[in-house]
Design brief:
The protein is α+β, with helices and mostly antiparallel strands. It is built from 16 helices and 15 strands. A five-stranded mixed beta sheet has the order 11-12-13-14-15, with helices on both faces. The N and C termini lie far apart (about 55 Å). It comes from Streptomyces tateyamensis.
Length: about 400
Amino acid sequence: MTALPPPELTLTADQARRIALRAQGLLGVPDRRAGVGGVLKRLGAVQLDTISVLARSHELVPYARLGAVGRPAVERAYWGAATSFEYWSHAACVLPIEQWPLFAFRRRAYRARGNLWNHQVDPQAYRAVLDRLRAEGPLTSTELGGAKRTAEWWDWSDSKIAVERALAFGDVVCTERRSWKRVYALAEQTVPAELLDRDPSDAECLTRLVGQAGRALGVATRADLLDYHRLKSAQVDAVLADSGLVPVAVAGWGTGAPTPAWADPAALAAEGSIDGSAAGRGRHRTTLLSPFDSLIWDRARTERMFGMSHRLEAYTPRHKRTHGYFAMPLLAGGKLVGRVDPARERGVLVARQISLDSPARLPALAQALREAADWVGCSLVRVEELSDEKLRAPLTRLLA
């Protein structure tokens, strides 16, 4: 591990949290003119997931920052306009198309590994997939003849294995999903030539990705930077000094001495002189957050920054869940103040389970529920289970 240079600045935990919220687009005036595309560029990665409760996670991320942006507008901003692509970053993520060259290091690593996911690839099947895409244009795996009813890896056909290998290697790119199916196209026919022709070294890729992660996080520990694009320790250590980030320390991010961290100089400047001056203030967003939102997708960072230990319980047996299937943290006043496990039943937004850290958070909860209901086209909100039943009557009045 590379030794940190001595920090020139020590931040309080509150200052670090505010810097992170601003960097994530959740503090200050939302840039609605830049829209969903602007959110994607700011974050650098928006995670995809199959679960759709209130909405799919990639829709919830811009909603949390911009408010009730139309859901069709969200999909148009991501898919079909050659302004973004899907690849492996923090997980399967939508990425700005400008970052295509920066993942050359990962594409090269996949090629060097050869077989991926313990699958042998028939070279003839690989060539056949590329030939079909060249002749017919973008196709789904179903159209390529590779779809199966089950999503288990071992049930993939040769053509599905081949096209996923081509995606990992960069011969094929996904810039669209239709009915949640990837649409595969040849990279040479989809990625702008000025980006496709670039072949940055691993060091350049990693330097820029670490810098991008630091800007998206505002202030981050080394572990936070590793997690953002799922990089390796040696990769981050090799480029940190050239990333454009500056060393700081954060008091309150641990039980002992201030925690070493790295910060974006522009984020520090936006916070003013770090003394509570007007430059460091701004309007906090009140909203429900997807568990896959980049503000909280790193559970250790979430607990360190907000004091909330949050886990996705979708894959936990029902009788063992604490907060619900898809509990969404409630962000209000720059803090995580509760959880809502939502569902939709026709025109009703159902809050299956709600917990709050204080009755004083009821107005924020009601605001978040009403806005979410309007966004997904629900005219009513029904609350099923409250952690404190004494709050039901005042919450009902606020929702009315």
